[in-house]
Amino acid sequence: MTAPGRRSSTFTRLLRHGFTDPSAAERLLEGVELAPIRNDPVLLEALGATADPDLALHGLARLVEAQPDPVAQRQLLDTVIAAKPLRDRLLGVLGASAALADHLARHPSDWQALVMYEPRDLHPEVEEFEQGLADATDPVSLRVAYRRCLLSIAARDVCGTADLAQTAAELADLATATLRAALAIARAAAPEDAALCRLAVIAMGKCGGHELNYVSDVDVIFVGEAMDGADEGKALRSATKLASHMMRICSETTVEGSIWPVDANLRPEGRNGPLVRTLSSHLAYYQRWAKTWEFQALLKARPVAGDIELGEEYVAALEPLVWKAAERENFVADVQKMRRRVVENIPVAELDRQLKLGPGGLRDVEFAVQLLQLVHGRDDASLRSGTTLDALQALAAGGYVGRADAAQLDDAYRFLRSMEHRIQLYRLRRTHLVPEDDADLRRIGRSLGLRVDAVAELNREWRRHASVVRRLHEKLFYRPLLDAVAQLAPEEARLSAGAARERLVALGYADPASALRHLEALASGVTRKAAIQRTLLPVLLGWFADSADPDAGLLNFRKVSDALGKTPWYLRLLRDEGAAAENLARVLSAGRLAPDLLMRAPEAVALLGDGDGGTGLEPRSRAHLEQEILAAVGRADGATQAVTAARGVRRRELFRTAAADIIDSYGTETKPAEADQGALVDRVGAAVSDLTAATLAGTLRAVVRDLWGDTLPTRFAIIGMGRFGGHELGYGSDADVVFVHEPRDDVDDQEAAAAANRVVSEMRRLLQIPSADPPLLIDADLRPEGKSGPLVRTLNSYEAYYRRWSLVWESQALLRAEVVAGDEDLGRRFIELVDPLRYPAEGLGEDAVREIRRLKARMESERLPRGSDPKLHTKLGPGGLSDVEWTVQLLQLQHGWAEPGLRTTRTREALAAACAAGLIPGEEAAILDEAWVLATRVRNAVMLVRGRAGDTFPSDSRELAAVGRYLGYEPGHVGDMLDAYRRTARRARSVVEELFYGA
After folding, report:
1. pLDDT score recorded for residue 485
2. What's the Cα-to-Cα distance from 920 to each of 213, 888, 914, 996, rounded to whole Å?
3. How far lies 733's CA from each of 414, 739, 940, 943, 950, in Å?
4. Element (H, E) at 894
C-alpha cells in the first residue's frame, strides 16, 4: 500500500506515458474489467503511443465491460496483449475518437473488424465496402455497418498504414458503397417506382473528387430517364421519390444516429429546381443558364450509384462544356469573387480558427487548383482529375505550377486536411473549426506525431502551413509565367508560349503578347534586380488582374521600374514594406491620371510605403503645403523657376491625393475599402482645394517678388468661388476665383490697377506654361459682368457694382466666396461686403426666387451637351450636381440670414444645416446628399480613369469598367452601376422638383 502523501509507482508511470489524469487512469486499471492486464508493460506502452491515452484507456474499459460474458472479455484482452496489429489499431482508434468508442460500447463485437490484417484489408475499395454493408436492410442496420467499416478506415489512418490521400479515397469509396446500399433499400421499398425509371447518382464535391472527409455533406446530382415504354412524367416522379428516400436513409437521425447529410443543392437552379432531371434537361440548363461556379463544381462530377451507364452519359455530355468555361467573360474574376464572398461570410469570431474557408485554408488550395485546371485543361487532358492532390501533381508535371510551389502546397494541404480529419474524427461531427481547448489541441497534435509540446507545436505548424498557402495561392497563377520568359532552369518543365498567353487572357489581359514582353524585360537575367522582380511580379500580376485594365498596370509598372531601376531604394521598398507593392499595383492599374503624375516624378513611389508610421498618403494641411511652396519659391531664381517648383509640389500632392483615393476606394488585403463614400469625396475635395490655394499663394509671392520686390503697389487678394470656394474641387477642376485689390497709400489708382492686372496675367501665364506638370487653369468668369467685366476690381468698385447692378445669380455665386490667398485683411473686408448680398435680410423675394428657377430651367435646356444622355450627366442631368447645389443654395439665400449654420460655402455642410433647422426632412436630405456624393465620385473616377475631366460615364468598355471598380462594382457589373446611378439621380430629382420648383 502506498504511504500517504506519496505517489504510487503506477501513477508515476502513467504520467511518463502521457496520461493527463493519472489518478482516474489508475482507478480504471484497478477495476475488475482490466485486472488481468493492468500490470502488463505492453499495455501502457501502447496506450502512451495514442493521441489521448486517458481517452483510449477509458474506451478500452467501456469496451471490456460491454462484452456479453467473461469469455468474450478474456478473448478481447488476450488479443489486445498478444496481437500488436490489433492493439495498435484498437487503441489508436479509442485514443482519437470518442464517437467510435461509443459505437464499440454499443456494439461490443465490432472490435473484431480490426483483427483482420490481410493485404486486401490494407487498402479496401468500393467492392470490399459493399461486402461490409451487404447485410444492411434498413437505415438502422446500414448505420451500424457503416460505422463498422469506418472503424477500419480510422484504424489505418491513425496507425499510419494509410496516408491522407488513401484515407480520403477510402472514405469516398465507403460513401459510394453507402449510397448504393441506401438506393437499394429505397428500391426495395418501392419496386413499382424502380421499374419505371433509370436513376443515376452523380457524386460531386469531395465525394466526387475521391477525397472525402470523415464527416461531410455528400454532394450529389440526380439524373433520371424513363424506362422503355414508360411515361416520362411518371418516371421522373418515381425517380424523385427514390432519390428523396435514398437521401433520407442517409441523412435522418435514428437510434444509431445519422450517417451524413446528402446535399443535392449543386443541381441546376439549386434547391428551387427539380430534384431529378433528364439528361437533356441538364444539358439545356448548362448550355444556357449555368454560372461559372457551376462548371467549376462539375470538375468533380463522378457517377457512383444507380444506373452507372446513364451517369457516364451525363459526364460525357457535360464534359465539353466544363472545359469551355474558361472562355466565359470575367471567368477568373467570377471564381475569385466567389472565393472572396466565402471569406466575407465567415463570422468574425471564427475567422482565425477556420481550417477550411479562412485565408490560407483548404479552400484556397482547392480554388487555385481548380482555376488552373479550367484554364489549361481545355488543351491538356492530363489535368482533368477531380482529386486536388492528383491535379496539383499534374499541374506541376506540365509546368503550369512551379515544382517547388506545388511541393509546398501539397505538404500544406496534406497537413491541413489531416488536422481536419482528426478534428472531425473525435466526435464524428461536421466541423472545420480548430478547437480552442488545450486538451483537444493536445489530442490533435499527438495524433499528428507532435509529442514534445503538442499544443505549441500544432499551433506553430498550422500557422506555418496556412501562411504558405496564403503566400502561394495567388502566386500560383503567375510565377510560371515568369519561369516561361526568364528560362533560368532549362531542364524544368515550363509553360509553353501558347499556354502562357492562354493564362494571361483568362486572367483578363487583353494583349498577352505585350504582357509577356514586359515580363521578359523585367524578369530575365541573373542580376539581383531581376531576381527581386521575379519575387515581386507573381503577386503584382495578381493585383493588376484584379483591376479593370491589367495591361495598363503591367505597362506602367515596367515604365516606373525602368525609370527607377537603378536607384537603390526602389525595389527594396517594394520588397520590404508590406503596403508599398500592393499600393503601387492598385495605383498603376486604376486609370491614367495617377500613373501620368507618377511618371513625371517616379520618386513619388516612396509615398506608397509604410514609412513615417504609414502616413505617406495622409493629406497634408494647407498650412504645411503653403509653408513648403513658399520656401521653394524663396529659394528659386526668378518667377519662372519659382512657379515651376510650386507646380512640382502640386503634382506630387495631386499624386498623393489620387493614390490615397484609389487605395481607399479599392481596399487592400489588410484594409477593406472605405465604406463612407461621403468621407472619400470630402477628403479629395479638401485636399485638392487646399493644394490649389497653396499653389496660388506661392505663385502670387513669386510674381510679386520678381516684378516689384517685397511689396506690390496695391493690396491684393484672391477669392475662391464655385467648387474651389466650397472646398469641393475635383482632380480636373479649374480654379474659379475673383480678384480684388486696394491701392496702397500714395499710389495712383491707375498704377495700382495696372499692377493688379499684371499680377493676374503673369500668374495665369506661369501656371499654364507647358511642362511635365499639370497646368492650373484660373477661371475668373464669375466676376461682376462676367467675361465682359474687368478682370480685377478695387474693393470700392465691387461695393459700387453690387449696390447698383448686382443680379440674383451673382448673389447665388457669392455663396461660395472664400478668401484663398493674398492680403487677409482685404479678403476679410470683401467677405463682409458680400455677406448681405448672399444672406439677404428676410430672405429672397418672390421675383428673385422665380428668376433663379427660370435661370435653372434655361441652363437645363441650353447647356446640356448635344447627344449626351441627360440621365447620366453628373453635372446638368436630372438629380445631378446642379440640381442638388441649386436647391441647397436657394435654401441658403432664403434662410441664411436667420440660420447661422447655412452660412457655409460647403454644399454638404449647408444641406446638413438645413436639415437640422427643419427646412428639409431628414430622408430627403439624405437622398440629396447621396446623389451629390455619387455624382462627385463619378466625376473624380472619370478623371482618374481617363486622365481628363468629364461629366458623364465613359463610352469605352474598359474605362467604364474601371469607373465601376473605383465605385466598388465587381467586374461584369457596370450595368448595375449605371442602374444605381439612374435610380439615385431619379430619387434626387423628385426631391428637387418639390423643394426647388415647388412642384
Report:
1. 64
2. 60, 10, 6, 11
3. 57, 18, 10, 10, 10
4. helix 881-895
Angle at 168 between CA 163 and CA 174, to 5 degrees: 125
H/E segment holding residue 736: strand 735-743
Residue 219, beta-bridge partner list: 263
The per-residue pLDDT for 614 is 46
Question: Is pLDDT at 613 greater than 70 in this prediction?
Answer: no
> Is-contact 462 419, C-beta < 8 A?
yes
Q: Is the pLDDT of residue 241 over 90?
A: yes
| Alpha carbon of residue 966 to chain centroid | 14
State how far the Cα of 396 lies from the Cα of 966, in Å rounded to an integer: 36
Show Cβ contacts of residue 162 under 8 Å, excluding neighbours closer than 6 positions: 122, 123, 153, 156, 170
Q: Are 176 and 126 in contact (CB under 8 A)?
A: yes
Confidence of residue 1 (pLDDT cuts 50, 70, 90): very low
DSSP 354: B
- Measured from the Cβ of residue 449, the count of other Cβ atoms closer than 10 Å reads 11
Q: What is the rounded distance in angstroms from the CA atom of residue 573 to the CA atom of residue 259?
A: 55
| Start-to-end CA span in the chain (Å) | 102
Interhelix angle 164-189/139-159, nearest 10 degrees: 170
Grouping H, G, I as helix, E, B as strand and the rest as coil, residue 777 is coil
- Sign for the pseudo-dihedral over CA of 330, 331, 334, 335: negative
CA–CA dist 350, 434 (Å, integer):
9
In the predicted model, what is the mean pLDDT of the chain? 91
Q: What type of residue sits at position 584?
A: L
Q: Which residues does 807 contact at the CB level (< 8 Å), separation at least 6?
A: none
Quick one: three-class SS letters along 694-727?
HHHHHHHHHHHHHHHCCCCCEEEEEEECHHHHCC
pLDDT digits (tens, 9 = 90+) for 902-942: 999 999 999 999 999 999 999 999 999 999 999 999 999 99
Cell of 238: 418515381
CA pair distance 855, 863, nearest whole angstrom? 11
Closest CA to 484 of 470, 494, 499: 494
Q: By three-state DSSP, how is residue 639 classified?
A: helix
Q: What is the per-residue DSSP string for 50-86?
A: SS-HHHHHHHHHHHHHHSSSHHHHHHHHHHHHH-HHH
**Cβ-based neighbours of 939, under 8 Å, separated by 6 or more:** 730, 732, 874, 875, 881, 949, 950, 951
**Residue that is written with C-alpha cell 491538356 in the block:** 380
Element (H, E) at 397: helix 388-397
Angle between helices 403-427 and 438-447 (to 10 degrees): 120
Query: Cα 133–139–142 angle (5° rounding)?
Result: 15
**pTM score:** 0.74
Q: Which amino acid appears at position 166 of this protein? A: Q
